[in-house]
């Protein structure tokens, strides 16, 4: 009974915060001609309801792909169609072909916000709750509830889903995949991740950890026995899952190729996030940060940009993927989700500032193991989206939810007391460096000082961005500063997570359970 009461209170608090944020502005409100992501989601409902499936991804007189053309996998389209059927019952004008473009009204806003709310309540929130109550580290129900509350009140996801406007379904499905794998339900985990990947192609950020972990399990079980059987079952599950999702588009090869071209528009170049924005948004990855000094777009062709980003991303992923395949463990898998997603965000092709959420959600999964570093990362990830949040009129929501989240994590985990090498999972690394690095004795004090400096810098820059005007000669000074500072943080976090993974001595002990 106590468990269900704590769970209900946690969910109620999370829903209250979400609904409060949703009462504010959204992406592109009252800003023709393109409006924003809110209009994109509404437009996809219009297209999927009024046009036959074969036209959803093609440019026609009824489907102008330059106006928020559908560029997500089939599951997103099916979800849009489902919402469209409900919208049609309430008010057909909301999805009328052509005439509904840019439609804005309070009843429609309530409907759209409710669809996100329901998706969160049905998919994402239950996954978080069940995950936290399944953790061995959260030995009591109270600890599990606190962990779940911290994850559910992460401001970055709330501000983007319920403020900016986005559905949490792909991340929710991915979480169900992680939860299933934690119980050794490998086939269910594979199905859940296939759903995530077929909802948003950005789930490729998480694909290598899923692949390497499951492949490593097959190797450990032996490819001449149980391991081979498991590999065949997983392969069959993935093929069937994709076949079911893509079945309506398998009428001819041109349909499939057109969907793939929409999902991966490589001709746009390295800076995809700049396509529909003026001035262009600043992104906290390595390419946008380097472009402050080196105009990559002007000196490197799109094809070379693609090859360069692929090479750098691949090299940054390789050590973690090899370690996870050779020594598969659930703990290593969760840390690999963070490291690989962060590598994709920093170095890959056509990244959007919202893509940092693909790193942040896996970080939420290890907040109970490294509360200090997880909290720090989640604060920086929210800060990195500040230019987008300001553009959407979400300053007040950002200013309230971010300090509240810091206070909650600080009180729940006593994060400033969790800065030793052992607390940060750096004990094996520190032992290997003993005799070479003398400052490890004062490491906790150094880390705390850096954290306080970082939080102060983010707070001051947030105030400046909100209250001051940049110099006329440097109109992008503030967003560029946010992106560069965030990028430097992310690079340091990438080094940290890779050190934890590569020096992890717990993986070898946990392999016995897998074998």
Automatic annotation (TrEMBL):
Keyword Signal set for record: yes
User: Pathway, per UniProt?
Assistant: Protein modification; protein glycosylation
Which Gene Ontology molecular function entries are recorded, alphabetically?
Answer: dolichyl pyrophosphate Man9GlcNAc2 alpha-1,3-glucosyltransferase activity
Alphabetically sorted, this entry's keywords are: Endoplasmic reticulum, Glycosyltransferase, Membrane, Signal, Transferase, Transmembrane, Transmembrane helix
Q: Which reaction does it catalyse?
A: an alpha-D-Man-(1->2)-alpha-D-Man-(1->2)-alpha-D-Man-(1->3)-[alpha-D-Man-(1->2)-alpha-D-Man-(1->3)-[alpha-D-Man-(1->2)-alpha-D-Man-(1->6)]-alpha-D-Man-(1->6)]-beta-D-Man-(1->4)-beta-D-GlcNAc-(1->4)-alpha-D-GlcNAc-diphospho-di-trans,poly-cis-dolichol + a di-trans,poly-cis-dolichyl beta-D-glucosyl phosphate = an alpha-D-Glc-(1->3)-alpha-D-Man-(1->2)-alpha-D-Man-(1->2)-alpha-D-Man-(1->3)-[alpha-D-Man-(1->2)-alpha-D-Man-(1->3)-[alpha-D-Man-(1->2)-alpha-D-Man-(1->6)]-alpha-D-Man-(1->6)]-beta-D-Man-(1->4)-beta-D-GlcNAc-(1->4)-alpha-D-GlcNAc-diphospho-di-trans,poly-cis-dolichol + a di-trans,poly-cis-dolichyl phosphate + H(+)
Topology of this chain in the membrane: Multi-pass membrane protein
Q: Which residues cross the membrane?
A: 110-133, 145-167, 173-197, 227-249, 332-349, 356-383, 395-416, 450-469, 481-503
Q: What is its main location?
A: endoplasmic reticulum
EC identifiers of the protein:
2.4.1.-
Q: What is its EC class?
A: transferase
Q: One GO cellular component from the entry?
A: endoplasmic reticulum membrane
| Top-level division of the source organism's lineage | Eukaryota
Instruction: Report the sequence similarity comment from the record.
Output: Belongs to the ALG6/ALG8 glucosyltransferase family.
Name this protein carries in UniProt:
Alpha-1,3-glucosyltransferase
> What organism does this protein naturally occur in?
Columbina picui (Picui ground-dove)
């Amino acid at each position: 009974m106590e468990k269900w009461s704590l769970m209900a209170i946690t969910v109620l608090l999370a829903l209250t915060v979400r609904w409060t944020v949703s009462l504010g502005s959204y992406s592109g409100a009252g800003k023709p001609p393109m409006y924003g992501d809110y209009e994109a989601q509404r437009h996809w409902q219009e297209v999927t309801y009024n046009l036959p499936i074969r036209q959803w991804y093609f440019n026609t007189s009824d489907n102008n792909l330059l106006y928020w053309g559908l560029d997500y996998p089939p599951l997103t389209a099916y979800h849009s169609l489902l919402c469209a059927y409900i919208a049609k019952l309430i008010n057909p004008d909301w999805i009328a072909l052509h005439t509904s473009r840019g439609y804005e009204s309070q009843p429609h806003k309530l409907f759209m916000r409710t669809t996100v709310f329901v998706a969160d309540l049905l998919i994402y929130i239950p996954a978080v709750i069940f995950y936290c109550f399944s953790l061995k580290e959260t030995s009591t129900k109270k600890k599990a509830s606190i962990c779940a509350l911290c994850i559910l009140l992460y401001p970055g996801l709330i501000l983007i889903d319920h403020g900016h406007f986005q559905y949490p379904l792909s991340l929710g499905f991915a979480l169900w995949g992680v939860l299933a794998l934690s119980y050794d339900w490998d086939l269910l985990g594979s199905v859940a991740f296939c759903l995530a990947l077929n909802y948003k192609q950005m789930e490729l950020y998480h694909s290598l950890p899923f692949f390497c972990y499951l492949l490593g399990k097959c190797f450990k079980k032996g490819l001449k026995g149980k391991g081979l059987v498991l590999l065949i079952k997983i392969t069959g599950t993935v093929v069937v899952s994709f076949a079911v999702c893509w079945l309506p588009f398998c009428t001819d090869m041109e349909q499939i190729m057109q969907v793939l071209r929409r999902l991966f528009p490589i001709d746009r170049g390295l800076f995809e996030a700049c396509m529909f924005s003026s001035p262009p948004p600043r992104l906290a990855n390595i390419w946008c940060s380097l472009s402050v000094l080196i105009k990559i777009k002007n000196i490197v062709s799109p094809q070379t940009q693609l090859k360069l980003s692929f090479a750098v991303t691949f090299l940054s992923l390789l050590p973690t993927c090899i370690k996870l395949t050779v020594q598969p463990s659930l703990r290593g898998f969760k840390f690999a989700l963070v490291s690989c997603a962060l590598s994709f965000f920093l170095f890959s092709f056509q990244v959007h500032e919202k893509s940092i959420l693909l790193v942040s959600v896996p970080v939420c999964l290890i907040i109970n193991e490294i509360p200090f570093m997880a909290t720090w990362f989640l604060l920086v990830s929210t800060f990195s989206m500040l230019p987008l949040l300001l553009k959407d009129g979400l300053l007040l929501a950002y200013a309230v939810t971010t300090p509240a989240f810091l206070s909650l994590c600080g009180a729940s985990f006593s994060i400033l007391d969790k800065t030793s090498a052992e607390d940060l999972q750096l004990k094996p690394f520190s032992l290997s460096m003993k005799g070479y690095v003398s400052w490890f004795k004062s490491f906790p004090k150094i880390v705390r000082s850096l954290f306080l400096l970082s939080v102060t810098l983010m707070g001051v820059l947030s105030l400046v961005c909100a209250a001051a005007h940049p110099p006329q000669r440097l109109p992008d000074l503030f967003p560029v500063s946010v992106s560069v500072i965030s990028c430097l943080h992310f690079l340091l976090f990438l080094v940290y997570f890779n050190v934890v993974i590569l020096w992890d001595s717990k993986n070898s002990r946990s392999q016995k359970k897998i074998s």
